[in-house]
Amino acid sequence: MIPASFDYVRAQSVEEAVTLLGRTEQATLPLAGGQSLLPLLRHRSITPSTLVDLGRLPELRGIEVVGDHVVIGALTRYRELETSHLLAEEAPLLRHVAGLVGDPQMRHRGTIGGALAHADPCADIPATAVALDASVVLHGEAGRREVAVEQFLTGPGRTVRSPEEVLVQVRLPRAGGRPWAYQRSCARALAWPTVAVAVAGDRVAMAGMGDVPWPAPATRAALGESASAAEAAALADEGAHPRDDRVASARYRRHLARILTRRALEEAGR
After folding, report:
1. CA 250, 158, 73 angle in degrees (round to 5)?
2. 250: which of 13, 185, 201, 259 is 20 to 30 A away, CA to CA?
3. Range of 193's domain?
4. Residues in Cβ contact with 201 at an 8 Å cutoff, skipping those fewer than 6 apart
5. How confident is the model over 245-257, as pLDDT tens digits?
6. What is the pTM of this model?
7. At 118, which CATH number?
8. 153-155 vs 158-159, strand pairing mode
9. Does residue 1 lie in a domain region?
10. How far apart, in Å, do the first and last CA atoms of the chain sit?
């Protein structure tokens, strides 16, 4: 399909982007890499009056260590994540998962901020961010605020971001040397996972097990009490609310959650 007509504005600064997005009389959306937004436009699932392009803002790119955190610009592309020597030391889980997303063309365009703002509960990056205890920094008319990713994501395509706010950074606690693993099952090549499990130390998070990444609280608690991988994995779906859909039944997703969690925990040496 052909998208509905819309105006296009290229922001020259974060402050200008906030001003443009804050025009309440218009349906205005930010544009990052476009890998999630453009298909929605083509299918007319969304019909904004204006797109504000953030892609030329250098302050929204890059990976650096600031104090006890790794700070990643929201427009940092998957390709930059998967080839980062800094992430190889400080957040190898994120580096690994970024290399699994889509195909090379997608990884050269898609951004970490766009993945989190799109809030697909079956996507790799949001679940990984939850496992890493990441937070996002939002810049709006009232200044900047930091929100844990686990609270930032509220449902499929929904976050706590206000319409005028720009997601500017992703922050990860430094934890080099922490055991990690990632396991996933996909229905076909290049598809989002049916279920995926990210493990970072004692933290576990899953994609495909509900409306937001599932933090597997029973598994986390069991790990804190020195349970074995098998014992902790048997609790992986406890309290989760997976859905039946055209990809898989809820029952099958629960089965995958337990199997993949055990594999991930064993791979991480738990």
Report:
1. 115
2. 201
3. 180-267
4. 175, 178, 179, 180
5. 999 999 999 999 9
6. 0.94
7. 3.30.465.10
8. antiparallel
9. no
10. 49
